[in-house]
Amino acid sequence: MSQAVGINFKKSSIDALIAGFMALVLFGPIVGVVLDGYNFNAEFGKVAWMVAIVAAGRFVMSCFFRLKKAWRWHFVTRITMKGWRY
Amino acid sequence: MDIVLQQLVNGLTLGSVYGLIAIGYTMVYGIIGMINFAHGDVYMVSAYITAIALALLTFFGIESFPIILVGTLFLTVAVTGAYGWVIERIAYRPLRSSSRLSVLISAIGMSLILQNYVQLSQGANQQGVPTLLTGALRFHVGDGFVQITYMKLLILFISILGMGVLTYVIQKTKLGRMCRATQQDRKMASILGIDTDKVISTVFVIGAVMAALAGVLVTLDYGAFDFYVGFIIGIKAFTAAVLGGIGSLPGAMLGGLILGLSEALFAGLISSDYKDVFSFSLLVLILIVRPSGLLGKPEVEKV
Amino acid sequence: MSNAVVRKTLISLAVAGAATLAQADVVIGVAGPHTGAYAAFGEQLWKGAEKAAADINAAGGVNGEMISLVKADDACEPKQAVSVANRLVDSDGAVAVVGHFCSSSSIPASKIYEEAGVIMVTPASTNPTLTDQGLPNVFRVCGRDDQQGDVAASYIVDKLNAKRVAVIHDKDTYGKGLADAMKSTLNAYGVKEVMYEGLTRGEKDFNALITKIRSVDADVVYFGGLHSEAGPLVRQLREQGSKAIFISGDGIVSDEFVSVAGSPKYVDGVLMTFGADPTSYPAGKKVIKEFRDSGYEPEGYTLYSYTAMQVAVAALANNNLDPIKGAKWLKSHSVNTVMGKKDFDSKGDLTVSDYVMYEWDAQGKYSQVD
Fold first, then answer.
1. Are residues C204 and C129 in the same domain?
2. pLDDT by residue (tens digit) across B175-204?
3. How far apart are the first and last CA of chain A?
4. Which of C81, C122, C190, C328 is the most exposed place for a label (fewest CB within 10 A)?
5. How far apart are alpha carbons B127 and C233 in whole angstroms?
6. ipTM for the complex?
7. Are residues C221 and C158 part of one domain?
8. Taking CB atoms and an 8 Å cutoff, what residues of chain B touch A40?
9. Which residues of B, range 257-276, sit inside 8 Å of C by Cβ?
10. Which residues contact B193 (CB under 8 A, 6 or more apart)?
């Protein structure tokens, strides 16, 4: 729960990479490989989109929570104090 | 005679599957006192991943059964474990210090999300996997025979192995000590330097991994599933966990076996129409005599 | 409520009303399990109805009005069927409905359509109760389970000469109704079933039940239910080494039956009753060819759904789009469809039933048994 000030692009990028990787693991099989009988159809485009959305979202969030302004929002502190670590 | 023995074999395999899934319910309940309604759906996800892994492996031209089995197990366990971790991270951890009810609602929501997510991405139709392992051991008893297919043997073997490893981990290792400490008193454990969030995450991953084992085995054996398959088996496994005493690890395994055996014996010897009625009546009876389940400890109300 | 608000509401109502009048399409609902475990059948229904509507619209529509289809998803659940039926008649303003699929959905929904005066033509619900209720607006373009059960029972007695028959059902309206119909005909032939039991829909482990089937030494297993349970059932039956002949009804008419059973070798020899090959009618050749050209094999209920749409449209077109008159008209007039000429009796059933026995082969395809 670092009370950091200012945007740290390096850290946010790492955050985004990790989130993107997790999204790849989760969505890769279920969304990317659509079963069709005993065979499958690949839908990797969809996976790429979802991973990109997750990574981008995470990057934005990660940057946002490093701004001092964000901490003024009561609900944000409520969420973050209870276990969300940034 | 052969029929009774055969039903025992049927019940034993069914029960060990229930036991594997029940572990997820019981460990999560033990450690944070919530019922993880999404657990049945984690099982369902693992069934899909099994079929996907099989399809991928056959696509890459791998044909030998042991490699397929190990590959499928590995992939399914890894991905389902990730699901367990992420579910805890996004649906339960932000609600860690809210009331138990909110977490419960969050769990129900997670269960619906998982079902609909799989339905949307994979389609709502029935899915199947090809039969890979055929053949069976047959024992002649009287004028009939008792048979256990190799797949059923594999189910028994892997679930016993899984439960054994888990028991060892919980009883003997540092991680297990941390789990047990967190289970007994989360605040005290964290004061003593245990990262309880990490421990809780680990427990969710363990639960998901056990469900994944069950998912691989059941999917390979029965070969049929859809996005709704987690519901019934989840309810049954939850019943098993309650039967054995929710929160108790050996209780979950025992509860699973009792539930599986009672279902098989009742369905086989009396009537399959009312087997669920019978197993739930059994649950009621056991809870009347032992309100905290067979091996459960009476709960001390936490203030 | 202030005047201004009232005025605004009135205006918006008037605008909304004008909008619906301006569209003045003939709204026809296609109700079935578009999601859920039986979505494969819902897709068959939709494909057939969609094609029929497109063809009719291309030929000038219904008395000049275009058909617009509304998809209504009941997921084969009676409760959801009632709520989508209400939605179809209230907010969508449907004048006819093609559906539902499951008998357990069609029966409760039919009452709502009756109250609203909407024609209901089901392509697939075979439970006798549906038309035995005596509702004036309900029709079906498929057979009835008692006819289907007759065909199966006489096949078991006459062709298979089986004496030991185990009857299994899935405790659902369709499955149990079919199994009961088969059982009563079987008993009328003087054959008493050796076992009569239900299984739970949604479960996959039937080993206990199968061990019991083995223990009563059945020659024939008759299953009333759908492919999602029939697949695991037949697979586990074979895995336990039983050679009993597996017979089921029209609930397993889907390629998914093979993939769910695990391998085509398990469905080899499975028998099922189903209407005489819907693709065999000369009137349907063109439609079938167009389906195949578009890369879709019109299997199972697709053509039934097409037929149901034609029946509903014929009733509307000949009666100035009045569904209540149309329902009366259907009972005394025949309709030419892609599955031949269809006549309805006073209950709304087809006057001619055409159930025959089909057999699955080791390639996972089915063909008529002669």
1. no
2. 999 988 988 888 888 899 888 889 999 999
3. 6
4. C190
5. 15
6. 0.83
7. yes
8. 52, 55-56, 59
9. 263-265, 267-269, 271-273, 275-276
10. none
